[in-house]
Write a structure and sequence with these properties.
Layout lengths: L24 H6 L9 E6 L5 H14 L4 E5 L4 H9 L8 E5 L24 H13 L3 E5 L1 H8 L2 H16 L4 E6 L9 H5 L2 E8 L7 E9 L8 E7 L2 E5 L21 H6 L9 E7 L4 H14 L3 E6 L4 H10 L5 H6 L2 E5 L7 H14 L2 E7 L1 H5 L5 H17 L3 E8 L18 E10 L2 E11 L9 E6 L3 E7 L3 E2 L7 E2 L15
Parallel strand pairs: 1-5, 1-6, 2-3, 2-4, 4-5, 10-14, 10-15, 11-12, 11-13, 13-14
Antiparallel strand pairs: 6-7, 7-8, 8-9, 15-16, 16-17, 17-18, 19-20
Helix pairs in contact: 5-6
Length: 509
């Protein structure tokens, strides 16, 4: 069965504008309420994009409302439709299926036309269709597909007249019609777009690695507003799920912005008093410097305050994280068991950006998460089609989380250990606070330093301090490294007598 997501449109429609569901909550949200009834709509897409699945979901939603539904098919037999529905564990109960043309009728020599009765008498097949519609009086009709109609028409003029005749016929019978088309017309031919009341387009593209990605775009809808652009789609057993593109401006929520402790007093002092709700903090540094451990400490402190948290793991396994948390004296397992902490391991090759943002929305709006961690951005970047889109997507996602009062921690691994260190992408300008971790050499030992480079909400400490993770004692932060020069370069010069943190000495922090 498909994963269930709840989407709520922030644009309520006037009471005088009735809507009907498409059978997909995500698509209804994109349409800001659904489809206007008694209109003719076009659903286009190349073969394999999921048109038949969408059509069946549309009709099944009508059956659930107690409406009469009709599926007129030129491209598939009833047995093929039953088999297609069975792949989603569906039955066609309540849906009347009518095969418009048999094998003989598909012969080009039998010149069939569907024209208005005032122009020409309809042939026997067309009269049967009209008779079936008149007899059943369906509220919803799917016509699959127009590519066969285009083939039978044999000329663009006759084809356009056929579609216009269909539109006129159905308009006088108070039914909502969904026309399916596999885009076999000449490139740039927009005749169907001009005739239809609304147009939705399904698309599919393949990356160099990983599964194909699907998306949907509402091309036009007369008389109603909708969310434009591409929206990610997942087609799975149980139907199609649409993940509306996140628009941060639609999700303002009041919240308090008092700083909250990280659980380490010295770290609170370094970042200006603690983590502020409605802000995001970037933890940047080389692998092994302590970024994930710092995030775990912040999450555990939030959980101890009674806040819910969600932790997205792109690199590390859930089991590994739980083992590490126990070893450091920051056991997260009880909070996972209680449901206050959700650990979600994410495969970036399988996850589209839209699906991820929808999962974040569900965690915040449905589950009440007040702290969120993305660990790490390096793997998340690989799920994006390009760096430019990463920036736009992260801007919307972080703006959304900030406006909902969520405390967000972003972990960004950097390449290199000592000396020159670089990042895949610079997200510092999107971050409200930045914590920088660095390795440095001192007295024949590799040590770690931490510093706060940025804070938009408060005055932060600008000193560079030693950072150490001790099993059982957790995070410890030492005095400012005032007697060192060149710590951030990895090769400092020692000019004083500042004592380093001992690995076996516990700290009240």
């Amino acid at each position: 069965m498909p994963t269930t997501f709840s989407f709520h449109s922030t644009y309520p429609q006037p009471a005088s504008t009735p809507r009907i569901s498409t059978g997909m909550p995500g698509l209804d949200a994109v349409l800001r309420g659904g489809l206007t009834p008694n209109r003719l709509y076009l659903l286009e897409g190349n073969p394999g994009t999921g048109k038949t699945t969408v059509a069946l979901q549309f009709l099944r939603a009508g059956v659930a409302r107690g409406e009469r539904c009709l599926y007129i098919t030129l491209s598939e037999t009833q047995q093929e439709l039953v088999a297609a529905a069975a792949t989603h564990d569906w039955a066609l109960d309540g849906i009347d299926v009518y095969e418009l043309v048999n094998e003989a009728g598909l012969d080009l020599e039998s010149s069939q036309s569907i024209l208005h009765p005032a122009d020409m008498e309809l042939n026997e097949t067309t009269r049967n269709v009209m008779a079936r519609v008149e007899d059943l009086k369906p509220a919803l009709v799917v016509f699959d597909s127009l590519s066969e109609m285009r083939l039978l028409a044999q000329s663009p003029l006759r084809y356009r007249r056929q579609i216009l005749a269909l539109k006129h016929f159905f308009a006088n019978r108070e039914c909502t019609v969904l026309l399916l088309d596999d885009k076999t017309s000449e490139p740039g031919d927009l005749q169907l777009h001009s005739i239809a009341h609304g147009v939705m387009s399904l698309d599919q593209y393949v990356q160099e690695f990983g599964p194909e990605r699907r998306r949907v775009r509402v091309v036009k809808m007369r008389g109603i507003q909708f969310d434009g652009g591409y929206h990610d789609v997942r087609l799975e057993r149980g139907g199609m799920i649409v993940f509306p593109r996140l628009v941060a401006a639609d999700h303002h929520e009041p919240f308090t912005s008092a700083p909250q402790s990280t659980g380490v007093q010295a770290l609170d002092d370094l970042i200006g008093g603690g983590l502020v709700p409605g802000t995001n903090t970037l933890l940047s540094g080389p692998s092994g410097a302590g970024k994930t451990t710092t995030a775990m400490r912040c999450v555990l402190t939030a959980l101890e305050r009674g806040q819910r948290a969600v932790y997205y793991l792109f690199d590390e396994g859930v089991g590994t994280l739980l083992i590490r948390s126990r070893a450091l004296g920051m056991n997260l397992q009880p909070h996972v068991d209680s449901g206050m902490l959700e650990l979600r391991q994410v495969d970036p090759a399988e996850l589209s950006p839209g699906e991820f943002s929808s999962a974040v929305r569900r965690a915040v709006e449905s589950d009440g998460a007040q702290m969120l961690v993305i660990d790490s951005l390096n793997a998340y970047i690989q799920a994006m089609p390009g760096e430019r889109f990463l920036m736009l997507h992260m801007h919307e996602l972080l703006a959304y989380l900030n406006q909902r009062g969520v405390t967000t921690l972003l972990i960004l691994g950097q390449h290199g250990f000592i000396g020159e260190v670089r990042s895949d992408v610079d997200l510092s300008y999107l971050s409200d606070s930045v914590l920088l971790f660095r390795f440095f050499e001192a007295q024949g030992e590799i040590l770690t330093a931490v510093s706060a480079l940025k804070s938009r909400t408060s005055s932060h400490g600008r000193m560079i301090r030693e950072f150490r993770v001790t099993p059982g004692a957790g995070i410890r932060i030492g005095e400012a490294l005032t007697d060192f020069e060149g710590v951030l370069s990895g090769l400092p010069t020692y000019r004083g007598k500042i004592a380093m943190l001992a690995p076996d000495i516990s700290d009240n922090n």
